[in-house]
Design brief:
Helices cover about 40% and strands about 20% of the residues. The protein is α/β, with parallel strands linked by helices. Strands 1, 2, 3, 4, 5 and 6 form a six-stranded parallel β-sheet that branches. Strand 3, helix 4 and strand 4 (about 110-115) form a beta-alpha-beta unit. One of its GO terms (molecular function) is oxidoreductase activity. One of its GO terms (cellular component) is cytosol. InterPro entries: Flavoprotein-like_sf (IPR029039), FMN_Rdtase-like_dom (IPR005025), NAD(P)H-dep_reductase (IPR050712).
């Protein structure tokens, strides 16, 4: 891998955590996709857990290679979790996708966009304790969207309140820093094993 490869575009997977039938995640994911597609260093992959089959009874220790999204997660240089806060925590669908996989998260950064009454802060803080066990690094910055349902226009599109886009870009800039550093680490580690 060359210096240009290390400093070039990064593959960022956005994991949409809600699997509810009627969900606030849809307009929020559409907004995220618009914002992140416009960032020149990102190759975006939107992974919607509502359309991925990860049955809990098929989970295996150490992750399941048969996962329909394992390859997409493995190819990512970093992750953004769009997570709701349900009952002061993150939803079971988020824990399920984390537990289904193992090596796919290792030595990669994870950022969060949370939503709910308090902006998903409790869900995010709990996720920060989960990812280090998988050798992933969570970035300090995050985006909190308290009462996001109050920021939908007449068409149901999310209209971010003041400061939200700035918070997203600060989060993504930190994610980029970690993603480049950790990609370099993963490449040098693979080279050392060869």
């Amino acid at each position: 891998m060359t210096e240009d490869d290390l400093n070039g575009r990064l593959r960022i997977a956005v994991v949409i955590g809600s699997v509810r039938r009627t969900r606030l995640a849809d307009p929020l994911a559409a907004w995220l996709k618009r914002e992140l597609t416009a960032i020149d260093w990102i190759d975006l992959d939107m992974i919607d857990l509502a359309s991925v089959s990860l049955p809990m009874h098929e989970m295996q220790p150490g992750g399941a290679a048969a996962s329909p999204i394992a390859g997409r997660l493995a190819d990512a240089d970093g992750f953004v979790f769009l997570t709701p806060e349900y009952n002061h925590s993150f939803p079971a669908s988020v824990k399920n996708v984390i537990d289904w996989h193992f090596t796919e998260w290792a030595y990669k950064p994870v950022a969060f966009v949370g939503y709910g009454g308090s902006g998903g802060v409790r869900a995010i803080e709990q996720l920060r304790t989960v990812f280090p066990e998988l050798r992933a690094t969570t970035v300090r910055e995050s985006v909190l969207l308290p009462m996001a349902w109050e920021h939908l226009d007449a068409d149901g599109s999310f209209v971010p309140p003041p400061g939200t886009v700035r918070a997203l870009h600060a989060t993504m800039n930190e994610l980029r820093t970690w993603a480049r550093a950790l990609r370099s680490l993963r490449v040098s580690d693979l080279a050392a094993r060869a």
